[in-house]
Amino acid sequence: MAFMQIIEYETTREQELEPLFDEWEQATQGKRTLSREFHAHDRDNPNHYVDVVEFPSYEAAMKNNSLPETQSFAERLRELCTTEPRFINLDVVSQH
How many domains does the chain have? Predict the structure, then answer.
C-alpha cells in the first residue's frame, strides 16, 4: 500500500530552500526510497510551504527518513523555519 507524507512549514528564508533540496537529492542518489515529491508554495501565505512526498510503503518511508542525509536535511530545514514543521503521515486507501 502506498504511503504519503505531508510536511507543512513556514520560512522567510525561501531562497535557501532550493539549494538545500538539491543538496539532499544529490546526497541520496541511489539510496532514497520516495516515488514522487511535490514542493508547493501557498499562494495566500507567502511564508507557508507544503511538501507532499509519496513512497511505495510505510516501510520505505521509514527507511528514507532514517538515512543520515535525510536526518541532516531535516535539521537544516528546521533551522530555516519560523515555526516547527508539521508532519502528517497518510496511508493511501484509494487512488483515482
Answer: 1
CB 77 within 8 A of CB 24: no
> Residue 25 is part of a domain; what is its CATH number?
3.30.70.100
Contact at 8 Å (CB) between 83 and 12?
no
The predicted-structure confidence for 4-31, as pLDDT tens digits, reads as follows 999 999 999 999 999 999 999 999 999 9
Question: How many Cα atoms sit within 13 Å of 40 on the Cβ side?
Answer: 13
Domain that holds residue 61: 3-91
The pLDDT tens digits for 62-91 are: 999 999 999 999 999 999 999 999 999 999
